[in-house]
């Protein structure tokens, strides 16, 4: 059996969107040595897929590429019932009028990139050219008709008077499908979970408790965001309230549809069947 190096690294998205899940989470209180590993989504994705990181939030699309290798932790996601506020398309024309022009993509999130492709192809029957660039709005718009930004780069650009039309992809998805969109999930490597099932369950429970405590009182999270990112209290209150951190039946339906469309467009080479970690999973692993 493979030995896993301790302390165990528990992934954390470097952006603000998962702060409520971690604000009251203390890795030192877990029963086994563990530490928070904060990184960009692309690096967390790579760590999970390359098996250098075993329990982490990852982009939904990255999970989908190797879904059979991972359990999803229950009751945890970064989702949006409507607008998400941090996955934004900046353009000179409305999205429906972009035609087959050029779209500059941020190079930091496969989930958002493929969500945009699904929306443009399936909803608007558009087939633009895509180019990948660093997330600098001015430079992207010099070479393209529209630019996709995510995370804190999108938030910062949206706070400026750019003159561009700003399309929120979470709102686009909801308007089109009537469902929420899940941008990130918490995944655990099945081999790791088989070796340390109690630790996985304990970590999942503590993350959910932290999330629930943050949602009950967002003020500490908002204050941290103001200190580190600027902006006023009302902005951050609205930002965190429009995100959704559960992963219930409705969120699973929305993500299943996303995976269905990704498979139909050959963005994924297989159908995705999501498997959630539960107490019954723990029992099966121990048998």
From TrEMBL:
InterPro entries associated with the record: Menaquinone_biosynth, MqnA
This protein's record includes keyword Transmembrane helix: no
Gene Ontology process terms (BP): menaquinone biosynthetic process
A molecular function (GO) term: hydro-lyase activity
Pathway participation: Quinol/quinone metabolism; menaquinone biosynthesis
Function noted in UniProt: Catalyzes the dehydration of chorismate into 3-[(1-carboxyvinyl)oxy]benzoate, a step in the biosynthesis of menaquinone (MK, vitamin K2).
Protein's name according to its UniProt entry: Chorismate dehydratase
Gene it is expressed from: mqnA
């Amino acid at each position: 059996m493979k030995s896993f190096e301790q302390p165990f690294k528990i992934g954390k998205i470097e952006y603000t969107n998962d702060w409520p899940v971690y604000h009251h989470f203390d890795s030192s209180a877990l029963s086994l040595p563990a530490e928070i590993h904060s990184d960009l989504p692309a690096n967390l994705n790579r760590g999970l897929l390359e098996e250098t990181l075993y329990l982490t939030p990852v982009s939904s699309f990255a999970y989908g590429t190797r879904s059979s290798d991972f359990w999803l932790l229950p009751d945890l996601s970064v989702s949006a019932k409507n607008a998400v506020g941090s996955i934004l398309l900046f353009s000179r024309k409305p999205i429906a009028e972009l035609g087959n022009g050029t779209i500059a993509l941020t190079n930091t999130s496969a989930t958002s990139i493929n969500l945009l492709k699904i929306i443009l192809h399936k909803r608007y029957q558009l087939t633009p050219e895509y180019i990948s660039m660093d997330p600098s709005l001015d430079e992207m718009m010099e070479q393209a008709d529209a630019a996709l930004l995510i995370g804190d780069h999108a938030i910062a650009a949206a706070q400026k008077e750019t003159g561009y039309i700003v399309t929120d992809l979470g709102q686009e998805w909801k308007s089109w499908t009537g469902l929420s969109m899940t941008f990130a999930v918490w995944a655990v490597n099945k081999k790791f979970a088989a070796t340390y099932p109690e630790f996985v369950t304990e970590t999942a429970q503590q993350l959910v408790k932290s999330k629930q405590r943050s949602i009950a009182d967002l003020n500490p999270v908002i204050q941290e965001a103001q200190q580190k990112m600027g902006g006023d209290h009302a902005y951050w209150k609205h930002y965190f309230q429009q995100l959704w951190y559960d992963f219930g039946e409705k969120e699973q339906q929305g993500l299943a549809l996303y995976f269905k469309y990704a498979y139909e467009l050959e963005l994924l080479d297989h159908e995705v069947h999501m498997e959630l970690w539960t107490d019954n999973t723990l029992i099966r692993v121990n048998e």
